Amino acid sequence: FPSQTITGNFANVIHGLNANHLTDRVIQRSKRMILDTLGVGLLGTSTEICHKVMQYSKIYSSDASSTTWGHLDFRLPPLYAAFVNGVAVHSMDFDDTWHPATHPSGAVLPAVIALSEAFSQKKRISGLDLLLAFNVGIEVQGRLLRFSSEARNIPKRY
Description:
Blueprint: H1 6-15, H2 24-44, H3 48-57, E1 66-68, E2 71-76, H4 78-90, H5 104-118, H6 127-151
Antiparallel strand pairs: 1-2
Helix pairs in contact: 2-4, 3-4, 4-5, 5-6
GO molecular function: aconitate decarboxylase activity
Protein name: IRG1 decarboxylase
Pfam family, one: MmgE_PrpD_N
């Protein structure tokens, strides 16, 4: 459809993703990316910058709360738990990367986990749901990265 915008097409593709799109290879790679990100994030919880963002985030409270990695007794609203955990992942700069430089898992996994913890017991998500959410986040980031170079050539359509 020539009249469809890049953004509209992007939204349609992302909205259409489901667990059937997760091949065995994608699931295995995703699990490896998640395990690597958790390991790097746990190591990053000991950094000075992570301690600073934890101290900053203590001023926020909410009925919904999520875990800060490495500090199971310290919970924050999902937004701030994702922020602290994302900083922990990236603080040592060992997290995965794409070219041109972006760090896909460090931005996606902390948000997915924080949100999944905020669901009520009745609405718990499955491991497959978590893998799908993770992969949708990675797909969004990859497509936005790709669009960023295209956007310079066609700013009116973006």
